[in-house]
TrEMBL record:
Keywords of the record: ATP-binding, Kinase, Magnesium, Nucleotide-binding, Nucleus, Purine salvage, Transferase
Subcellular location: Nucleus
Pathway annotation: Purine metabolism; AMP biosynthesis via salvage pathway; AMP from adenosine: step 1/1
Record GO cellular component, one term: cytosol
Organism name: Camponotus floridanus (Florida carpenter ant)
Cofactor binding description: Binds 3 Mg(2+) ions per subunit.
Record-annotated active site: 323 (proton acceptor)
PROSITE patterns (UniProt xref): PFKB_KINASES_2
Protein name: Adenosine kinase
Keyword field contains Kinase: yes
Cofactor (UniProt): Mg(2+)
Length: 371
């Protein structure tokens, strides 16, 4: 393993963009609610994710109490991750660390979203769908939990033709990051990206994203897990994945180890004694929330657990915690840090983000966030 050197010093040596991400670009409305009345009315789950039709979404927005604290920010899982990653690597925006791809509408929400993303220093190459509205997500934050409600609109469409028009240049690319929500409508695009990544030895990182997508897209998720080098998920998503793959376990903490073992048996490829932990597939990162540590498993069952980092300010909104952890982790991967350092940074960034309303980023990095 190369000696760990400061993140930004290493990142500055890369060719850019070093990462591209594919997902559902959404405009987020983050609202702090004082009780769970709206969750009950719309049958929403605490810390859950669901989709509503445009009519129901407008009803929900109309039902939001006028006095509630709220903010409008760019959203969507992978888009959030790229924003945070850019902020970590260079908040001055002298370099653009990554490019985001997804579908938006030809409307005011889409224009606002693109403006906000570009202000954050992230390059975007949206596919514009003139007959569909830009996707919207309402995050209802209550105490230390949140419930996400989305109407995907144009975000639910991204075709092979859109990819061809965007024509991402992959010669110097290090990572292609794909959120699970994206493959519910664009599996063919994801598979084409996998094919191109394999030809150029680019890391595929995949996020399981949400429990509810397993109901109708179990086979697609399992296929992407098979292709990905790095897989992120929380405990509930990992349990769903284990069940989908018929993996038997005694304790939830066994799951990433069993998935790692299954991946090695299925792929039957190993770098042997390579010192590069990224040489092999089967890297699984599982978060559990609360006081339970995050776990990473790689190689031949090697692992590290990182206890949750207590925020220095009160928890305000947990909406972007998972996206932030991925951003910190992938920043470490780009810097070629060891697994423990990558996960530690991910946990630190997640701990910071949950003290903000929405995924809102200050103009400068807190001095104690980056090593």
């Amino acid at each position: 393993m190369v000696e760990k050197i400061p993140l930004r010093k290493t990142i500055a040596r890369l060719d850019f963009p070093a990462i591209i991400a594919f997902g559902n670009p959404l405009l987020d409305i983050v609202v702090i609610v004082k009780n769970d009345d709206l969750l009950k009315k719309y049958n929403l789950k605490i810390d859950g994710e669901t989709e509503l039709c445009e009519k129901k979404m407008q009803e929900l927005i109309a039902d939001l109490p006028p006095e509630t604290e709220r903010c409008t920010t760019p959203g969507g899982s992978a888009q959030n991750t790229l924003r945070i990653l850019q902020w970590l690597c260079d908040e001055t925006h002298e370099i653009q660390i990554g490019t985001f791809y997804g579908g938006v509408g030809n409307d005011q929400k889409g224009s606002i979203l693109e403006k906000l993303i570009r202000i954050a220093g992230v390059d975007v190459k949206y596919a514009i769908h003139s007959t569909l509205p830009t996707g919207l997500c309402v995050s209802l934050a209550h105490d230390s939990s949140r419930s996400l409600v989305a109407n995907l609109g144009a975000a639910n469409t991204y075709t092979l033709d859109d990819l061809k028009k965007a024509n991402p240049q992959l010669d110097n690319m290090k990572i292609i990051y794909i959120e699970g929500y994206f493959i519910t409508h664009s599996l063919d695009v994801a598979k084409e990206l996998v094919k191109r990544a394999q030809e150029k030895n680019i890391i595929i990182a995949f996020n399981l994203s949400g429990l509810y997508i397993f109901q109708d897209h179990q086979a697609a998720i399992c296929e992407m897990v098979g292709h990905a080098k790095i897989v992120f998920g929380n405990a509930r998503e990992m349990i769903a994945l284990a069940q989908a793959l018929n993996v038997k376990y005694d304790d939830v903490t066994d799951i990433p180890f069993l998935l790692n073992s299954l991946k090695r048996i299925t792929v039957d490829v190993s770098s042997g004694n390579s010192k590069d932990w990224l040489a092999d597939d089967g890297i699984f990162i599982m978060t559990r929330g609360g006081c339970a540590p995050a776990i990473i498993v790689w190689g031949k069952g090697q692992s590290v657990q990182i206890p949750p980092i207590v925020p220095k300010a009160p928890i305000v909104d947990t909406t972007g915690a998972g996206d932030a952890l991925v951003a910190g982790f992938l920043a470490g991967v780009l810097a070629h840090w060891d697994p423990k350092s990558c996960l530690e940074l991910g946990c630190k960034v997640a701990s910071y983000i949950i003290t903000k309303l929405g995924v809102t980023l200050p103009s400068s990095i807190p001095p104690d966030l980056l090593p």
